[in-house]
Request: fold
Amino acid sequence: MIVERCGLHRRPAAFFFFSGHKYAADMLLTFLRGTAIVLGALALAASWLDVETYVTAWIGLVLLFVAIAGLGSRQAFAAGLLFGVIYIAVALKWAPHMLALTLNSDTDQWKPWLVFLAIASWEAIPFALLSSAVTSAAGGAFPIWLCAGGWIAMERFWPRVFPWSLAHTQIGLPPMVQVAELGGIYLVSFVILYFCIGIGVQASRKDFTVRLASCVPLMLVVASLVFGWFRLAAFENAAAQQKTIRVGVVQFDPRYIDATKKMRLASEQLQPVDLLLWPESTLGTYSTAVKGLDEIRRDIKVAHMPFLDWKQARGLGAWLLAGGKTFEPGASDEGPYYQTAYLVDTDGEFRGRYYKRSLMPIGEYMPLEHKFPDLHDWAQLSQQAAWGTSDAPLQVKDGVPVGVLLCYEDIVAEMSRRSVAEGAELLVSLINASAFEDPLALEQHLRLATLRSVENRRTLIRCSGTGVSACIAPTGEVLSQLPTHTEGQFAVEAQLNSGRTVYNRVGFLLPHLAAVVVGYYVLKDHYLTRYAAKGHAKQSQTE
Reply:
């Protein structure tokens, strides 16, 4: 332990400049633990604030595991909870303002902060559970790799508002994230955490030496990096032989009246292209009965307010993929509405529609609102949202299958995986993002989306109203992008791929296996404890 390694149990007077009482040693140790926890949380948060600070994520986690060495399970739980709350609060510092806008709480300033505190505390519980488990593993109750396994099980199953992962802290280190094609973000997170727990546990011991227990996670990190370097080189060599499609991306905030006119002018400057992308929320709200732009009129049976200038989307010289909304005939002003991506040909006919499959909590619906309808009104959500069900890609010009994502679906791994499994050779994400005024939030959104390319080895093209519009290669490299809160456009030759990765085929097998193994150990420990307790009671009765 830290006290023993520093010799505090042998030389308290010289070390403290005090009378040498144990109370003073305990107070200093508590201060050192607290400092390490706070610094560790800030270091982990720093890896989210700047993509180039990926190394601070490793430092922050090691500091946490060193700090909790020697604590009991409950104390470690509290330390981990504190660590998690600080980390979330700093990394997502833009969230309270966003929640204020989402909840329309200009008059109730306490509401967004209360919701954010609840979210941060909820998101911090996995850190608390992890810390408690690590202290038990350090005492020899079970192997430390089981803690890393438990963590990735929580990354998969713990209900989160923001689906972040430790893997996303390593975007700035491309070789490290290439193993995502084998096990998704979960394999990357496992490698990181297994190494950090091993180092933290070993460093906190008085007899710290290089042991096999610490060499195994180190070798796993090295193996991941070597695999990544080879895969990056392989994709670079094969890129010239892959089929491509030329895609034009237009970034304009769709909230403004003249936005569609600007989008058209920008689109004409990009010609010739095979496919044009406009952001989410640009084409209006139409009935499912409408077959094309020529059928749209200011009739509530056909279109709902606001009536946008749809004529700008006709005759562009290329097929257009743009966002809007759809309602079933007879729906009221409150909906329900499908968030929709419309595929429009050069004559203005709708060649396909994609309905959003994963709705945003709090922004589009409130969790548990079906059981407690008052939650919908409490969040001041004016419309009812409907869920799409089809994973099928849209067939764009020349029959290229494109997997479509809307809004925050590009940060939900399952959405991309299912689209690619259905045959998508390219991934496209249409985003509004006007609610996120802080550039940091938009940049973090891009980072969360980046690993969708690596997991499925597909080019991902993001078209956002306020940023970040970008083209991401199958290796996770950002090939082109536009700054946040700017107007602009770019064209890119997007690589098409048809093969499927190990991750795309087996999906969430790794975290599911981890959950089974952890569950086995928990049940085994539970029944062994009960058996020992019964044996002890029986022996006492006999005596």
About this structure: Residues 70 and 89 are 27 Å apart (CA to CA). DSSP finds 17 helices and 14 strands in the chain. The two ends are 39 Å apart (CA to CA).
